[in-house]
Each structure stands twice: as C-alpha cells, then as structure tokens.
Specification:
The chain is of the alpha+beta class. The chain is built from 25 helices and 33 strands. Helix 2 runs antiparallel to helix 4 and helix 22 crosses helix 24.
Length: 925
C-alpha cells in the first residue's frame, strides 16, 4: 500500500505537470525534459547498479570452495549465511539502492547534458589552451560529471567487492591463512587500477578547470601560480596516477602488493606536495614579492574575459568636471530632461493607490509599483503603473465556493503620470477606476494571472461553465457576474482529471462540488515569473515582472537571462548578493531575490510575455547572437520566437532589465579599470552607495528608470541609472546610465561619467543629509508636522547630470499618522545642485530657488488638469524671502528657549508659522 501511494503521488505530479504544460502549448518542453531526465536516470542508474552488483556477484562467485578453519565472528557467519541463502535479493537490494541514488544525481544534470549535446561555438578562443570558449561552457561541465560518476561507481564497486570477499572468506585479516585468495587479489587489483585510471583522467581535466576557478585571491581564472605550478602538477599527477594504475593491473597477475601499494602511497603524498605545498611555495616566494609584475598578464586576461562575459566591454567612461555653482538659467539647454524627473515614487505610493483605486477590500496592489512609458497626446510619458489584483484575504465569506470559484480574478491596470501630482498632492491619473477609463486604449481588464494572484503555491481557481449556464465569478463590484473564456487553464470536466487534481491539491471538494462541471478549468501557478521559469527551465528570470497594455490586453513582461559559471577567466559573482538592494530587502515586496548561484557569464537573451487573462507565455529571442541562447534554441526548437516577431506595441514597452544592470554595475565598479596595474592597485575602485532614504535596510541603493539627457546629447533618453561613490568613502565617484529604450538603436549602450579627483562631489548619502538638515527644509517640515496632523516621509533620491553638474531631486510625502484610510500625498520637493538646496511645493519652485530665481526651463508640471502651476519669478522671490524670515524666526525662537524666555519663544514660533504660510501662498498653495 505504501508503494502504491507513493507511486500514485509521483504519477499525479508528473501527469498534472504534463496537462499544465499542454494548457499553454509548451508540452514539447515538458516532453524534452521528462525524456531527458528519465533517460539519464535509467542509463546512469542501471550502469551504477549493474557495475556494483556485478562486482559484488563476481566476488561471491570467486569465493573459496573450502574455508580454512579457525576462530571467526558469529556476526560474520550470520552475514555469510544471509548472502548464501538470499543471494539474489541481496544483489537486487544493492543494485536498487545505489542505482536510485545514481539515477537521481544524473537526472539533475539534464540541462548540462542537453547543453553539451547541442553546444554552439562562441567563436572566441581561450588564450591558454587555444580552445573555443564553448568547451568550457558546455563540454567541460558534462565531462566533469561523467568522470565524477565513473570514479564514484568504481570506488563503490571496490568497496562492495572487498566486503563480499571478506564476508565469503576470500580475504582474511587474521588466522593461519591471512591475506586473500588469488582470484580475490586479481579482482580487487583490476578494480583499483581502473579507479586510478579514472582519477588520472580527472587530474588531466583539472588543468582546464583552473580557468574557471579562483586560483588566486585576486581574481577568478588562471594565475601565475596556477599556470607555472598547479597546471604542471596536475599533468604530473595524471601521469603518476596512470603509472600506479598500471601497477595495480599488473598486480592482478603478479600478486606483489608491496610495489603498487607503495606507488599509491607515493601518489597520495605527491598529490599533497604537488597540489598544495608546491603551488604555495611558488606563490609565497616567487609571486608574492613581485605580485603585480607576475600577475600582470593574467590580470589582463581576467579583465578582458570579465568585460566580455558580462557585456560591458563597450562601456564608455568619460571624465566629467562637474560644476557646483548654480546660476540663473543654467538648465536651459537641459530643459527636455526636466519633465523626466519622477516625483511619484513607485516605492512610496502603493498605499495611495490602495486607498484611491482599490475600490473593494478584496483587491490589492503590489507594495512596490512599476515604471513604464506610454505615448499620450503624441508625447512619450513616464508612468507609474500597477495592476489591481485579487486579495483573497479581503474576502468576507471565507468558504471554498467563494475562494475557489467566485473571487477568481483582479480587474484593470491603474496608471499615473510620473512627474505630476494633483493640487492635493495625489497622483494625476492616466488610467483609473473600474472599468478602467483614461488615456490608455481600452483593454481586456480581467487579471487571472499576476504577481500577487496565486502567489501561494496551493492557491488555485476553478473557472468556466457550459454555454447558457449562469455565471458565478464576481467581475466588478455591483456589476454582473462573469464566466472565464480564456485558453489558459487545465480542463477538469472528466472524473479522471478531478481525481488527479483532488490528489494534487489534497482537496476532496474538487471531486464533490457541483461547481466543477463539464466545462470547468483549473488555473494555478499563476505568477508570471514561475510560468516563465517552468516554460524555460534553462533561464534565470528577472526579480520583477512589470505590467503593460499591449494591443488592448494587459500582459506581464519578464526578462530572461542565460548564464554560465564556467566562462574561462571571467570573474565569478554571487547572483543573489549582487542583485540585492533596498527593494529586495523590503519585507512583503513582490520583487523576488535571485538564487545564490555563482555565475561568470550573463546575457539578457529572452524577453518573455505572460498574458494576464489567459496565462499564455511567449518567449522572444532578444539577444540572438548569444551562443547559449542558440544552444537552447536547438534543444527546444519552436517555443522561442525570433526577435522579428515582437509586435511594435510590445517593443515600445520593453526596457533594459534591472537585475542585469545590477550585475553590470557591480562588475564595472572595479572593471572600469582596464589597465592591469591600476586594477591591481585599486586606485580607482568604486562602491555602490547604500540607499540613503531607506537607511534601516542597510542595503544598496536601487537603480532608477529616468529620462536622462546625457551631456552633449541633443535629446533625453529613457535610461536606467545608478551612482557610484569612492571606495570606502561617501563622495560621488561616477554616474552610470544605460540606454533602456528597446526601440532605440543605442539600446544597451552603457556610459559612465567619472568625477574629477581634484574636486569632491557629494554622493547620495551626503546630499540626503545636506538636504534634510538644511535649515529652511527642516524648519518647514517641523512646522508642517508640529500639530500632529501629518507625518513627512522622503521619496526616492534621484540623481541626474544637468546644467554641467549633478542635480539631486527628492519628493517629500505627507501622511496622517495612525489614521485609518490615510495615505501619502506629495507635498514638497527638495533639490540640490552643488551646495545649493531648493525647497518648494513643486519641482519648478525648488529648481528656481536653487538657480537664483530662474532655472531656465519648465518642468511641465502645469500640463494637463490638476497639475501644480510653477511659480513666477516674483512669486519665487516672495517665497524665498518668506522662507528666510521663517528660518530667522526659528533661530530666534531656539535662542529664546535656551534662555528660558518662553513668551519670546512662542512669539517667534507664531511668526515662523506666519512666514511659512506666506511662502506657501507665494508658491500658489
């Protein structure tokens, strides 16, 4: 019964997986993986089982016909009796146990085998051995597994044969006839000899592995010591292992154990001396005193390989002498970039979306929203977008029918302008409400698949009904019900499918409920990332999928990466640590951390799209020059569509992926140095700054999507940006941006502005401190929150190269503390250029303050209804005067308080409040 239950559970899992893959036309992926895993399991399992069992059986067959008399162990006699009376069962048990373990290990190498079997050349030659890089990426990992398997199988065979010989009396460690029979000695000698031959082959292969491991504390790849000591040692050990193997094979005839045993001992001692002592001596006495000189050529190899493997070889580094002086009209030439300064922070306004667009408690928005672009009134506009998904925790009637058949889907995409707010500080909506209305074209609004929809692995919905049946799915609050008609989902109308899924989800209601009818479908595994990951198991997927309206439908865009950890001489990184930032560290966010795999090659080779209504997955070959992608195209065939098949409407929403950018910025923090001497001395090493706004997370600052006008360019470009600080310091060292517009011919172009070493430019942390401790800013915020009616919080600190320098911009939000239904609204904007800080109720007002009353450009906040009008020059002058008066009054109040003059203190506080009111009126508030 136990065997039957386990077998049925395995069958259920396999068969329902097949049905799931077939439901969105990826059955070929399932079949390929299943056949490959099964084939590897059977082949390697049978080889292991056959080899071990055959040698154990041979040892039994070679048992002595007459055992010498003498003292023996009762336990040994009992084992001997068991073997003799139940020989077949013992052999079967040994074979099954070792075969299962071996088969399971081999089936886990399915992707390694498939990549090796269909490998594609890189067209790049390794400088050490003259081999194509594909040997290291595809062939070497598979050969290492085969050699490891062979060594393990032979080692277990030696142990099994030795134990059997001992149990059957062919080998004795005591008594008058101590030793072994002739046949036992020959058998064990041959097995040990074959094992050593395989070990020798492994030593030979180890020399290639030196190019993909950390052979020096400095870098990954072959080093001086590895080249001149370790590699030679591996070759010597390979030859030595072969010689000792021949000695053991000869011993099968000669039976002279002293010589082969001495050879084995010498081999072990040689492995210690040549593998550790010799390389350590060379490193200490030859390399360490002149390390920079010795390692120079190998560092250059590492630099070249790393920059090629991570796709940063063509990045441009330009010296940038950033000015710190703000003058009137300074931003005139950069006017186009100002509307791209995003004031609506996707990490801060989720509660605002919840309160204003949630509509009902059974809907929800993600904790961190997304940034996209839409063409509105002929202008490309940055938008903050989110999908209204189902939240089953908000359903009042927590019963099976409601949770599984009624509350099945979310409804609609909500979007707001990224650079505008209403006069109340709330987002200015582009698309809102149920059903959605606004500037974005009408679309299929129902969301059955999403980041939050079905995030629980045991969550599923049963949808669909026969023609003419009354719909039971809740569609919109107060509206008519709905019946799902999409392609996605597995049909469970038959009793057999009901039984399978009742077993899969351990839910008898699937069998018993009359809500499950002949036309029903079950939908599960509904998050975009997991659907793409299962449809393309050879990909790693970006941690954040984002929604877009494409050709009238809501789709989720997921970036897929091909990776390797065996690109020769390229620096290995930990993917999880490298892509972690303040967003992944935020509890409850939908941004998923990457696995902690070691990689040293990465390409954004695939753009994947998941339909939010029916869950269908489409894979598009994005980097069609990637040899790793070409290999998987050979394996999985037509499931990957060509780049030319990407619709124009989808192309407009594709962007440069965040996780790849995070990896590249980490690499470029050191590998922007292309001279080996500079690289070795770390004289220009950069760090990624911690997020100054989310200081409690103690994590790296996230990259930002912004429209950036690069110095010297005629137009602003949608870009993904980050800042660097000097190693161990907080001052700005460099600013990096990549063209993130997939429709641009310069997509993926990485450019870096390197700050001058002679002038210190404050980094994000220093600027955040200067902005929040500025007397005018701090006084205004204290007054704003003094009565307990609101609490201020800071949004993302954005960095842009503008006006010949660096501009920092940060929104300030206000929210009633502890109040039910409260949400953050945009109230102020703080900017900093050089040492000048501006503060106002709009970006325009803050910029004009910094640039002596006239920034020279319009931020565009007055476009459309509900926008915040920019203050004129006279109003700005009045606002500045009022803020100065408020600052003076606050200083006088503090002095009065220190002196104990409470009456004077209250008078000055009242005066400060009046001055702040004057400033707000001057700015149109």
């Amino acid at each position: 019964m136990a065997v039957l239950v386990v077998a049925f559970a395995i069958f259920t899992n396999v068969w329902t997986s097949r049905l799931w893959f077939d439901s969105f036309d990826f059955g070929s992926v399932f079949n390929t993986m299943l056949l490959t895993r099964t084939g590897l399991f059977l082949v390697f399992g049978l080889v292991m089982a056959g080899l071990v069992s055959a040698n154990a059986a041979l040892a039994y067959r070679l048992r002595p016909r007459f055992r010498p008399q003498g003292p023996t162990s009762p336990l040994l006699e009992r084992y001997r009796e068991i073997v003799e009376t139940r020989f077949i069962w013992v052999m079967v048990a040994i074979g099954v146990v070792v075969g299962l373990f071996a088969g399971a290990a081999a089936s886990g190498q399915a992707l390694t085998f498939l990549a090796w079997s269909e490998k594609t050349g890189f067209g790049v030659t390794d400088p050490q051995y003259g081999l194509d890089v594909s040997f290291f990426v595809f062939t070497y990992p598979w050969l290492r597994f085969v050699l490891s398997f062979a060594f393990t199988a032979l080692t277990i065979s030696v142990i099994a044969a030795a134990v059997m010989h001992y149990v059957m009396g062919a080998v004795r460690f005591s008594g008058p006839r101590r030793g072994g029979t002739t046949s036992a000695q020959a058998h064990l000698s041959v097995l040990v000899g074959l094992t050593l031959l395989v070990r020798g082959a492994s030593y030979w292969m180890d020399q290639y592995g030196l190019e993909t491991t950390k052979t020096s504390p400095l870098f990954t790849g072959i080093s001086y010591t590895a080249d001149n000591a370790t590699a030679n040692a591996k070759l010597i050990l390979a030859i030595a292992a072969g010689i000792v193997a021949l000695l053991f094979l000869a011993n099968a005839v000669l039976h002279r154990w002293v010589i082969p045993t001495a050879g084995l001992v010498l081999l072990i001692l040689s492995a210690i001396v040549l593998g550790y002592v010799y390389p350590g001596t060379v490193q200490y006495f030859s390399v360490r005193p002149s390390e920079e000189l010795r390692e120079r050529a190998y560092i250059q190899r590492n630099i070249d390989a790393t920059r090629a493997a991570y796709g940063v070889a063509d990045s441009e580094v330009t010296d940038y002498s950033a000015t710190q002086t703000a003058t009137a009209g300074q931003l005139r030439t950069d006017a186009e970039a100002l509307p791209g300064i995003r004031l609506i922070d996707p990490s801060a306004v989720s509660p605002t979306y919840e309160q204003l667009q949630q509509v009902r408690g059974y809907y929800q928005f993600p904790k961190i929203l997304d940034v996209d672009r839409y063409t509105i009134d002929g202008q490309e506009t940055d938008a903050v977008v989110a999908v209204r998904e189902m939240n089953l925790d908000g359903v009042e009637g927590q019963n099976w029918n409601n949770l599984k058949t009624v509350y099945t889907h979310g409804f609609g995409l909500v979007s707001a302008y990224g650079n505008r707010a209403q006069a109340t500080g709330e987002p200015q909506w582009i698309t809102e409400g149920i059903p959605p209305t606004g500037a974005i074209a009408e679309h299929e609004p129902r969301v059955y698949f999403g980041e939050l929809q079905g995030a629980n692995p045991n969550e599923y919905s049963i949808v669909g009904a026969p023609a003419g049946a009354a719909p039971i799915e809740l569609d919109t609050p107060g509206g008519p019900n709905y019946t799902y008609t999409g392609k996605g989902g597995v049909a469970i109308g038959s009793l057999w499918h009901k039984l399978l899924y009742a077993a899969k989800f351990a839910d008898i209601n699937i069998l018993l409920s009359d809500r499950v009818n002949s036309a029903s479908k079950i939908i599960y595994d509904r998050t975009p990332r997991e659907r793409v990951q299962q449809a393309a198991p050879w990909l790693k997927v970006d941690g954040d999928a984002y929604p877009a309206v494409v050709e009238g439908r809501i789709v989720w865009v997921v970036d897929g990466y091909t990776t390797s950890n065996s690109y020769p001489n390229s620096e290995r990184i930990n993917l999880a640590q490298t892509t972690a930032d303040s967003q992944t560290a935020t509890p409850g966010t939908q941004v998923v951390a990457q696995p902690g795999d070691q990689i040293n090659y990465m390409r954004n080779s695939v753009k994947a799209v998941v339909d939010a209504y029916d869950g269908t997955v489409k894979l598009y070959a994005w980097d069609d020059t990637d040899p790793v992608l070409k290999t998987w195209q050979k394996v999985f065939g037509s499931v990957i569509q060509p780049k030319s098949a990407i619709p124009a409407d989808l192309l407009a929403h594709l962007r440069y992926p965040q996780d790849q950018f995070k990896v590249q910025r980490q690499i470029l923090s050191r590998y922007h140095q292309t001279d080996p001497g500079t690289w070795y001395r770390n004289s220009s090493l950069w760090d990624i700054p911690n997020d100054p706004v989310n200081a409690s997370a103690s994590s790296k600052e996230q990259p930002f999507y912004l429209s950036v006008k690069w110095p010297g360019d005629p137009n602003a470009t949608f870009s993904l940006t980050t800042a660097y600080v000097a190693n161990g310091r907080s001052n700005l060292a460099a600013y990096m941006a990549v063209n993130a517009d997939a429709a641009s011919p310069d997509y993926g172009k990485i450019r870096i502005l390197q700050m001058s070493d002679t002038t210190q430019i404050d980094g994000p942390g220093q600027s955040f401190n200067a902005m929040t401790t500025n007397e005018t800013v701090s006084a205004a915020l204290r007054n704003f929150t003094a009565q307990g009616s609101a609490q201020a919080s800071f949004g993302n600190l954005l960095t842009l190269p503008l006006g010949g320098g660096l501009l920092y911009a940060m929104p300030v939000y206000a929210q009633r503390p502890g109040a039910t239904g409260s949400y953050p609204v945009l109230r102020f904007v703080v900017v900093r250029f050089g040492q000048s800080v501006g503060f106002g109720t709009s970006l325009q007002a803050a910029l004009d303050q910094v640039f002596q009353g006239n920034a020279g450009a319009d931020t565009g906040e007055d476009e459309g209804t509900g926008g915040t009008p920019p203050a004129g020059e006279a109003d700005n002058a009045a606002a500045l005067s009022a803020l100065d008066d408020a600052s003076t009054a606050y200083s006088d109040a503090q002095k009065a308080l220190t002196a104990g003059n409470l009456g004077e203190y209250q008078t000055k506080i009242n005066q400060m409040q009046e001055d702040l009111v004057r400033a707000q009126r001057a700015l149109g508030r």
